[in-house]
Structure formats: structure tokens, C-alpha cells
Fold this sequence. Notes:
Blueprint: H1 3-11, H2 27-37, H3 41-47, E1 52-54, E2 72-73, E3 79-84, E4 90-96, H4 105-110, H5 124-130, E5 135-137, H6 149-157, H7 159-168, H8 170-195, E6 201-205, H9 218-237, E7 242-246, H10 255-261, E8 265-267, H11 278-285, E9 290-295, H12 300-303, H13 306-320, E10 326-330, H14 340-352
Helix pairs in contact: 6-7, 7-8, 8-9, 9-10, 13-14
Amino acid sequence: MNSRERVAITLAHEKPDRMPINFRAVDAVVKKLGRKNGIDYEDLLRHWHVDFREVIPPYNGPELPVLEDGVAIDIWGVGRSEIDHPDGGRDVMVTFNPLKDADKVEDVKAHRWPKADWFDFASLPSICRRHNGYALSTPGIHAEGYHGVFHLLTYLFGMENGIMHLAMRPDLVRAAIEEIMKFFVDYYERFFETADGAVDLLFYKDDFGTQNNLLISAEMFRDFFQPTIKSLCDLAAGYGVKFVQHSCGAVFDIIPDFVAAGVAVLDPIQTTARGMDIVELKRKFGADLVFHGGIDTQHLMPFGTVDEIKTETRRVIDVLGEGGGYFFSPSHRFQADTPIENIVAAYEVVEEFM
Length: 354
């Protein structure tokens, strides 16, 4: 059984020969692991029997500027600055919001919105062939990828405006959502048309939860964002592609809305957030969702002992993997403060289930 078959069986809520395995980490961790094992990133994925590969169409659009202060502008016109840490890690922080001062719908419409034409989809068939036999995902399942509609609103307008506008200026929000969705629909339609059946997953990153609650009300989520998720789920389904919804935080209360929209896989299962108990998640939603993640990168992986990590990894696999329906993965990318021996310990447990 190859990786793609294994993932397809799991998505059908049946039990394959073994659970599918994923790996994701920040660059600093990948470099440390590469040096430790004397291998490159692709060899690292093969070393740990990772079943997923990310397919990324090259960007060939207009040159993206870097401002004098080092702020890098992305395809959305959003600016980011890099912050280095002593442990070798780095953060990329949003420091420029192009629609911060937008006051009219016309201001939103006049913004330079990205176009799917800026990407080289013609290269996708050859990229897919290089990963023949693996389960293939749009950008996001390892490290790359776009944030979803909600996050983009907070980047474009700024966090405070992005959230306040939901209540005070829904006209601006809806105008921006319309433009964002034009890009996503065109981008993914071209992606799946050109890949011609080779891609299995659409990975969609949009965080709706904090540590203890939702970032916005469930009613606002259903009004503004569930329809966009459903639209992309329907688009993906038309090409035989399953939709992976990434949302960190305490999102238990809107999981039924994810299911109703057509979400097939829930990521990353942040077990330290309120209400995200894996036993309850499996009991209530295991018939509808495949779970991807659940290995805590907030406390367990950076601060736990090897024995604690092995014990908890076995528990997560036993609970979420019962009867199938689980993709093994950390609950986020392993961060630079995570000891390498702790990561190795988790994957040693994975090998026990192979």
C-alpha cells in the first residue's frame, strides 16, 4: 500500500495498514535534524515515513517590493518584518496593513488584489509526478500556504479594525471577502484543473480560536466565514479533493459548522485549548472528521521529558487512531525551542504502530 492509498482509506474512515504520518517544523528545527542525521529535508520526510507532500506552483507575478525599513510586501499588499530569536528561530510579524485607513467600499475595491495569473500552474503536472505515490496537498500541510479569509481581513485592515469592522463596517468586510474569494476560487480551480486528479487535499489555514474561547462569536463565524469555507469545500469536492480546515485554539463550539460546510479533516487539534479534549472530539466528531495533529507543541514537546512524550504520543494515537480516521502530526510546526531528542522520541513511538 502506498501513501496515497493509505490516506484515501483513512479519509474513508476505514483502517489502513498503518496510520498516515506527517511532519512539520520551522526551518531552524529542519536544519538541526538534517545536521543530526546527515540528510536533507526530503530524505528526512522519507526517514520518518511521511505520507504527505506539498505541491506549490511557482510564483511568476510582479516583483514583490521590500521597503526601505526591510518590510517585505506580499501578494496581498500586506507587509511583514522578520524577528530573529537567540535560539535560532524567527518570527514573521505583520507590520503593514494596506487597508488600515479604508473608509469606503471603493477604497477596498481599488486595492491591488492578487491574481491567479501570477502563478505557474503549468508546472504542476511535473511537480506532482515527482511525488508519485504520496498524498498531495495544496500549500500548507507542511509549512507554506495562504491564510484564509478571516486572517487576511486582520492583515489587510489590521487586527483591531479587522475584528471591529465585522460589527461596525460589515460593508467593508463583505467587499474584501468578495475580492479574496475571487482569488481563491480562481487559484484553486486552476490548481485542480491543471493537476488533473493528482491532488488529494486542499489545506486551508484560518484560526478562529484563542486559548480559551473563539476569537469572534459563533454567530459572526456563521454569517461571514462558514459560507466561504463551504464554497471552497464544494469547489474541492468537485475535483475529488478533500478539504482540511486548520484552526488553532478552542474551536469545539463551531466544529459542527465545519462539518456542515463539508470539512473532511480537522487540524491541528490544539489539545491545550479549552474544550479540545481528544476523547470527546473522537466521540462526538470521529464519524464525520479525520483528525490531523494532536501532539502538543505548546507544552509537551518543548518542555516534556522523553518518557512523558512517549506516553502521551501513544495515548493520542490510541484515542484518535481508534478504528482509523487519524493522521499523525504535531499540533503545529515544531518550534526552535523543541529539543531534537523530544521530536525523535515522538517518531520512535510512531514506528511502534507501523
